[in-house]
Amino acid sequence: MRCDVVAVGTELLLGQIIDSNSAWIGGELAAHGIDSLVQVKVGDNIDRIVLQLERRLAEADAVIMCGGLGPTHDDLTREAIARVMGVELELDEALGDVIRDMFASRGRRMPENNLRQAMVPAGASIIPQTRGTAPGLVCPVTVDGVEKVVFAVPGVPHEMHDMFHRGIIPELQRRSGERFTIASRVLLTWGESESGLNERLDDVIAELDEAGNPTLAFLASGWNGLKVRLTAKGADAVEAARILDPWEERLRAELGDLVFGTGDETIESVVLDLMRQKGWSIGCAESVTGGLVGGRITAVSGCSDVFRGSIVSYASEVKYDLLGVPEGPVVSEESALAMAHGARRVLGCDVALSLTGVAGPGTQDGQPAGTLFCGLVWPDGEATQYFRLPGLREQMRQFSVINSLNWLRTTLT
Amino acid sequence: MRCDVVAVGTELLLGQIIDSNSAWIGGELAAHGIDSLVQVKVGDNIDRIVLQLERRLAEADAVIMCGGLGPTHDDLTREAIARVMGVELELDEALGDVIRDMFASRGRRMPENNLRQAMVPAGASIIPQTRGTAPGLVCPVTVDGVEKVVFAVPGVPHEMHDMFHRGIIPELQRRSGERFTIASRVLLTWGESESGLNERLDDVIAELDEAGNPTLAFLASGWNGLKVRLTAKGADAVEAARILDPWEERLRAELGDLVFGTGDETIESVVLDLMRQKGWSIGCAESVTGGLVGGRITAVSGCSDVFRGSIVSYASEVKYDLLGVPEGPVVSEESALAMAHGARRVLGCDVALSLTGVAGPGTQDGQPAGTLFCGLVWPDGEATQYFRLPGLREQMRQFSVINSLNWLRTTLT
Lengths: 413, 413
Fold this sequence. Notes:
Number of strands of chain A: 17
Distance between the termini of chain A: 47 Å
Radius of gyration of chain A: 26 Å
Helix content of chain A: 40-55%
Strand content of chain A: 25-35%
CATH architecture of the largest domain in chain A: 3-Layer(aba) Sandwich
Structural class of chain A: alpha/beta
Largest interface: A-B, 90 and 87 residues
Oligomer: homodimer
């Protein structure tokens, strides 16, 4: 089964947005045993979209079109597919109502052109939208007497990812007639570089290459850590799991404390669970991160049972006056520890984590950009930690978040 | 002049590396007045590379191939170009010496396969390498009696960028004989949907389509707002600017207060500049956003001159005890205003912005997910605002950030 990708949008060709969607789609297709051999970017021009779609359909069994489903005059994916199918666009009344209701529920007037998103090529079926207004499309098309299919999904990643798993993968597996199951195990790690992990796992990787199934991949995901993914192909979920179990054990044995979670966990959800186990509430004092740690923790729904809040003490005076940090240089071990004690008192929490550092550009208190001091106070102890982090301003700040939370995890576990 | 791009590498299709090279190339070509209308990713397979290169050459005047120039067996770009040119690969002795010398100078043994990088299609010329071992190639090819050209550059960005400006742009300009410049103006807007903007600008868009130059595009950039971009083609920067000026004026007249900034500004940088104009310091009290507002503001380097900090009062007790919010439901106008007053007192700032709401899933204080109340206190006034926002938990929180900051802007401007 071969499924190529056509990403639609002039902004992709002008480099204003980098097309990461087709790379994501290629990775997911591969994980489900489907080849994606050519991926194309084309601008918002009906003739060129049609030509590129026809070229992909001539070579592949299926094509995923990503983007160009919005309501405006330059959203042309629907028209292009209809032209390739040789059919008209028809208004889907049910879709029209969904879109009208969405605007109504927000008490907003609906510009008429939003109904463009309810236009569907005759003979196509819908992948219902759950997050946006543009639905996905499943469009059967016959090419030289061969049954093929064109999928259309929005370019907004979280909308696209959701529709891909709900509407595209099941349809592709149905068409391919292949019945094997692909199952993955993801170990979340922090504290070692990709090449470092690679080295630690040299022997395991050699044995895996030998075995061929499961396969192993490293997925760098920025401040969500470095993921190690095992993917196995089995007759069913049970067999796939049986194949994965011993290899996951091997990986855990090799990686030890570097593994902080699995699957959809995050360092912040792991820290929150740790607090629940201990029966402790937690709060923060943030300077260099300006609220990113609190922002990350509160992204986890249900965090309110243990998370109290965070004191973003960006100005030195706030550190002195509110947190009781002794006057003087604020990028230091002493300051970090005082910030943690201050946050614990002000927020009335059992555990307090503090971050003070230099994001750059430029130095502060004689410390270079990349300097991070963390403080940690809990009911029966306290600790500080120094980090020297890479990256420009924003990257340094994001590394600060995961490094501080992972340090809290290893310190209190 | 049209120059398409073919990025070569199986890792690009598997999503192990995101192809940012073709986006960069597209942006640079546009800046030099050259169209890049289709960009393709293909894996390390000689037949497929040849087929995709032939397809690009059938449509474009020139093609840039990026990647596949390394020394290993799966670096096939040279072979593919030679096949399309209908010529043999020949060893370029001078190149061979350069590569041998490079290894010698590093005191390293040269694996023989490195000489693959000295193989050149007969009739091609060289873009000398200054940073790596793989040279670039300029390969003239005749397609249906028309003179066209294929360029080959390495996939390593800094090597590719260097060769692009040295060897590709001059050759393309020589061939096109054209000398015009492309210039863009970006207006950042908030407060109207993409379709709403499209409707407000219906007449302008019609006139622009008539004129053909400049062109207009909408770029949704999530919580960075909705961008409206004008792009003009002119003999030089001065003429391009002269073409853009009246149209930018038209857009500003139509969009009015929806426009919060231009170019690389952000809503937070605009708010910080507004505070500087007024000579006011600013702080926040965040509940539903958990620190995201502070995190966004502190992403702007140099914010410390006006930004004091943020009180992330996630637990109700922190709102009551630290900010002096009256006990009772905390998702309300009254609570939002009290939070702002409390933050202004605790942080010692001139302006305080507060956010309290329901990110969901589920309701709070009888309010549905998507509810946001904001409070604002400044030296000579106070205000509150209710928003009903779309989206799941994280999307709602991000909309809360830009809506609250944009409301602050319109209230205090």
